[in-house]
Amino acid sequence: MTYSNTQILSQRFGEDELKTLTDRDGSNALNVQILENALKDADALINSALKHRYSVPFSPVPTIIKLIATDIAYSRLFTHHRPPIVSEILNDAMKQLSDIASGNFNINDVPSKASNLAVDSDTKIFGRKPLTSF
What we know:
134 residues, single chain, mainly alpha, 54% helix
């Protein structure tokens, strides 16, 4: 299961657009395999970026991750020339991913690995009072 799917891509960008982007043989048909490959690539990128902060893969998939995966997958369908608006969509998705990975943006209802961190140490040996005589 991928974070996004062909139905979400179709709803967001239109089936005709997806047919045009995936038609490699001139049949004017939607090539689902190309879409699925783009979706898997998006998942791999997301998992790689967030594996140090969250347990991946996500299940259930948070809405923000679905949106990022959809945008990344869409941008990967442009094999020759990526229009400026598509580059902007990709840059926005990558910025969001970077913000999540760095902790500047948290995913609601998903605990980060850092939130499970516990620190245990010995009793303090040195403090201000014992060191003032030196």
